[in-house]
Specification:
The chain has 259 residues and is of the alpha/beta class. It contains 8 helices and 7 strands.
């Protein structure tokens, strides 16, 4: 996958836009997923029955205190659509100094991650099983997240389904408003047309600036999954996009009077 020549932007370029609550009309009203009843293994079902009360947070449609949820004030990373939790486990295990809040709609994925939490003896992971747009809009406070990870969201290949893609202008603005200044939004995809759309949308978001010229090298903290490794062996390319929330511009200094 070639890297576009779109220039990156400086942290201290234009003034930081006002980050009030993003109007809900600007957020996607069309779901980026389709509800389906997937197969749940015996182990996943057991984990849901025995471990969900410890790690799964009910969505209540009101602001969530992250410090209360994790019982500490460590930095919080939000992961949207963690699938079966392979990457979530690896990152949380390698970075115990961070808290990870994962959002997933599919029950099998939640059960799988619960199994991984138990097997790896993790204490820094929490799960919300609900629509990500609604969670971010209603439960995540402004400027409260240190990073947001969106790895391999559904690319919705057919043109008539592009409206279902998660990375749209309204969603980018919503996510950016929940990042702390300097916080990171990291997306990854193996579908080149979607990668270009991501680059365009995120580059046009006033609250965000690209940390690279175009696509980024894969950060060391994002592990290669089995699925991704197989794709790379087959010649498939993967694009990582790492954007940061703009830092406030320093206050302008007015010339003092000589009198």
């Amino acid at each position: 996958m070639s890297t576009p020549s779109r220039p990156s932007e400086s942290h201290s370029g234009s003034p930081l836009p006002e980050a009030g609550n993003t109007p809900r009309a600007e957020t996607p009203s069309i779901k980026s997923y389709v509800r389906r009843q997937g197969k749940i293994t015996t182990g996943q079902r057991r984990a849901l029955a025995e471990e969900a009360h410890r790690w799964v947070v009910p969505f209540e449609g009101k602001p969530l205190s992250l410090a209360t949820l994790f019982k500490n004030s460590r930095p919080v990373v939000l992961e949207i659509g963690f699938g079966m939790g392979e990457t979530t486990q690896a990152i949380a295990q390698s970075q115990p100094e961070l808290n990870f809040l994962g959002i997933e709609v599919y029950t099998a994925g939640v059960g799988s991650l619960l199994n991984r939490i138990t097997q790896a003896n993790l204490s820094n992971v929490r799960i919300i099983q609900h629509d990500a747009v609604e969670v971010i809009d209603q439960a995540i406070e402004l400027s409260s997240l240190d990073a947001v990870y969106i790895f391999f969201p559904d690319p919705w290949h057919k043109k008539r389904h592009h409206k279902r893609r998660l990375i749209q202008a309204g969603f980018a603005a919503l996510v950016a408003s929940r990042l702390k200044p300097g916080g990171i939004l990291h997306c990854a995809t193996d579908w080149e047309p979607y990668a270009q759309q991501m680059l365009d949308v995120l580059s046009d978001c006033p609250l965000l600036c690209n940390t690279s010229q175009g696509y980024s090298p894969r950060p060391s903290y994002r592990p290669l999954t089995k699925f991704e490794s197989r794709g790379l062996r087959l010649g498939h390319s993967v694009a990582d996009l790492v954007f940061s929330r703009r830092l406030p511009s320093p206050p302008s200094q007015t010339a003092s009077s000589s009198k």
